[in-house]
Specification:
Elements (H helix, E strand, L loop, with lengths): L1 H7 L10 H10 L4 E5 L1 E2 L2 E2 H11 L4 E6 L4 H9 L4 E4 L4 H30 L11 H15 L4 E4 L6 H11 L7 E5 L5 H9 E2 L11 E2 L1 H4 L4 E5 L6 H13 L1 E2 L8 E2 L3 E6 L3 H6 L5 H7 L2 E4 L10 H16 L5 E2 L1 H9 L5 H15 L4 E2 L15 H4 L6 H23 L4 H8 L3 H8 L4
Parallel strand pairs: 1-4, 4-5, 6-13, 6-14, 7-10, 10-13, 15-16
Antiparallel strand pairs: 2-3, 8-9, 11-12
The protein binds adenosine-5'-triphosphate and magnesium ion.
Adenosine-5'-triphosphate (ATP) binds next to helix 7 and helix 15.
């Protein structure tokens, strides 16, 4: 009768004929709510409460007690039951309690996620950047969001990998699901496996209850694996299986669990090189990099520096109660010219520091506390060194030529014939090179 009522109410129901079967079911499965009598063949309802709470510390257990069995009900609640029903069971009351129990379970899961999330962000900041290289990146994020492919975000430290991973999730059909992030470099291998896949009770000393891992929490949403390049070989194999088969086991678990998630990975390492040196599995690399997105460093989109700096200054000045803070002309120049090896994060930190150090409302270059780049500009700050040697040479040559032509034209006072002679070019050849984008 109970089963029929619950199924009619839209719940999926598993049954156990006695306490023994119930324990086995609970250890193996994932249940949002448990309904049990207190007197059962092969044990008591208290065994079931205990088993349910071992399986999931937040399990919602509802016990059924005989009419007038108030003492039993109180004992059951003390043992961890959420609520009780008196027999004969009133179906409306049953539906109400089960519905409420499931809602509570769902909210607890969300709270865990929210708590973790809140620590990392205070609202998703706006993604800023008009530079064509960065716009390309944003278009790629939008394309990826429209599909369900795995995405690999690469870029130097502080370029916005995590920010774009979150944006990707927000833009995707999974936006209602969870965005679960984990940093593979920040946690030792053993703990990381635990964090990722969870564990069963008794998987090792100290595993007193089942723990649900990040992979399970990301079900229906997006799993963000940050610094994937630091993943130990044994875990690489497990992530490969997760990506390929969409299944995994909890640590110490025999049951294979299925998940539905999108994987977004990020790294500031050259994964190709890690593959070449056999530190990173090639098969996993191929699986992850179905849709690679490379975020250019800030020094290759200098046009965005001021916008990023000003936006951050405004937000930060508001927090400090120093409205009206602004950069002086010379400060703007210094900001744009700096190489920003730590990219947007370094820029943000620098702006925050300057906002505090500034004496008046105008921030001076000295307030930025920028270290002059040692030994002049590094070639990598000027020329994009990715790709083949021929690519690099072509880019370096183009940059040097353009600068030499600009100088020659300036020195010749704009006289093309004179500039051409100085450069050893025919006037026609110079004219061709001066034409924008031939
Ligand atoms: N285009 C952008 N617009 C606005 N804020 C940005 C942008 N890019 C990065 N940021 C900000 O810069 C900071 C660093 O970004 P994020 O943490 O996403 O970088 P990351 O690539 O993950 O860095 P790391 O490799 O060091 O973990 C964050 O506060 C982020 O909000
Ligand atoms: Mg990051």
């Amino acid at each position: 009768m109970l089963r029929r009522t619950l199924v009619q109410g839209g719940f999926a129901v598993d049954e156990a004929a006695d306490a023994y079967v119930a324990r086995r079911r609970l250890a193996a499965g994932r249940y949002l709510a448990v309904l049990t009598d207190l007197r059962l063949p092969g044990g008591s309802g208290f065994d079931v409460i205990e088993a349910a709470r071992e399986a999931d510390a937040d399990a919602a257990v509802i016990v059924m007690t005989a009419f007038g069995g108030v003492e039993d009900a109180v004992r059951a609640m003390k043992a961890g039951a959420l609520d009780f029903l008196t027999k004969p069971v009133d179906t409306e009351h049953l539906m109400l309690l089960v519905g409420r129990a499931i809602e509570r379970r769902r909210m607890l899961t969300e709270n865990v996620l929210l708590r973790e999330d809140a620590q990392r962000r205070h609202g998703l900041p706006r993604v800023l950047g008009d530079a064509p290289e960065f716009q390309e990146c944003l278009k790629a994020v939008q394309r990826a969001a429209a599909s369900d492919v795995n995405v690999l975000l690469t870029g130097e430290s502080g370029t916005g990998k995590e920010l774009l991973a979150r944006s990707l999730h927000q833009l995707s059909v999974r936006a209602k699901g969870a965005f679960v992030a984990i940093n593979c470099a920040a946690i030792p291998e053993q703990l990381l496996e635990n964090e990722l896949f969870g564990h069963e009770k008794g998987a090792y000393t100290g595993a007193v209850a089942r723990k649900v891992g990040k992979v399970e929490l990301a079900h229906g949403g997006t799993l963000f694996l940050d610094e994937i390049g630091e993943l130990a070989p044994a875990l690489q194999a497990k992530i490969l299986r997760l990506v390929q088969e969409r299944e995994f086991e909890r640590v110490g678990g025999l049951q294979t669990l299925a998940v539905d998630l999108r994987l977004v990975a990020a790294t500031n390492r050259d994964l190709r090189a890690a593959v070449a040196s056999r530190e990173f599995r090639e098969d996993l690399f191929f699986r992850l990099s179905v849709f690679p997105i490379e975020i250019p460093p800030l020094r290759r989109r200098r046009g965005d520096v001021l916008r990023l700096a000003e936006e951050h200054l405004e937000r930060h000045a508001r927090e400090l109660g120093r409205r009206g803070l602004r950069f002086s002309e010379a400060t703007c120049k210094a900001l744009v010219e700096h190489a920003w090896p730590g990219n947007v994060r370094e820029l943000h930190n620098c702006v925050e520091r300057a906002a505090i150090l500034a004496k008046g409302l105008e921030i001076q270059p000295a307030d930025l506390r920028l270290e002059p780049a040692a030994g002049g500009p590094r070639i990598a700050d000027v020329v994009d060194l990715s790709g083949t040697l021929a690519d690099v040479t072509r880019r370096a040559t183009a940059l040097a030529e353009a600068e030499a032509i600009r100088l020659a034209m300036a020195e010749a006072g704009g006289d093309r014939a004179a500039a051409a002679e100085r450069l050893g070019l025919s006037p026609q050849a110079l004219a061709r090179r001066l034409k924008p984008e031939s």
